[in-house]
Amino acid sequence: MRTQSISLLFFVIGYVLCQPPMGGQQQPQDPPFLQGASDSVKSSFRALFENTDNFTEKQMDDKVNAWIAQQSTTIQNQYKQFQQQMKQMKQQAQQAHQRAVQTLSSGAKQADADLIKITDNANLTPAQKNQQISDYISKLQKSNPSVAAEIQQLMQQAPQMMF
Q1: pLDDT tens-digit map of 44-83
Q2: Cα(107)–Cα(14) distance, rounded to whole angstroms?
Q3: Structural contact between residues 56 and 129, judged by C-beta atoms closer than 8 angstroms
Q4: Do 128 and 142 contact (CB within 8 A), yes or no?
Q5: How far apart are CA 83 and CA 100, in angstroms?
Q6: What is d(CA 31, CA 53) in angstroms, rounded to the nearest whole number?
Q7: What span is annotated as the signal peptide, if there is one (predicted)?
Q8: CA–CA separation, 127 vs 40, rounded Å?
Q9: Which residue in 6, 41, 59, 124 has the most C-beta neighbors within 10 A?
């Protein structure tokens, strides 16, 4: 369960930081636990994600946790609240995902479980996860197109449930 909530946390933070500026003038939106933090604190947080393409999820988690440990009590407490919110969101997404998976064929259920194992593997980089998922789907399309179609439909209906 810890890995799954970390997966979501990493995904959310990455997503928030990777949002393009709107109108070319605004900065990417910071995570809510940095609300009210100084610009230097926000900048140091963003710097954590520079040159991290080859970092595994676990390495990034460790890096973020080390950074959080050096911050003020206020930020640490806000981060704990953020983690709780992410945990709740993850649980809700997992429940919705489980409901959706119940309608799948047994082959698609197994494929879904295999894909979840990939996304929950904290020892992979995001690029490795993407590559493994892509390879898995490609092989599935060749070996069992109907199962691949079920999985792709599930992913299109609710991509947030996959992470």
Answers
A1: 999 998 888 899 999 999 999 999 999 999 999 999 999 9
A2: 32
A3: no
A4: no
A5: 25
A6: 20
A7: 1-18
A8: 29
A9: 6
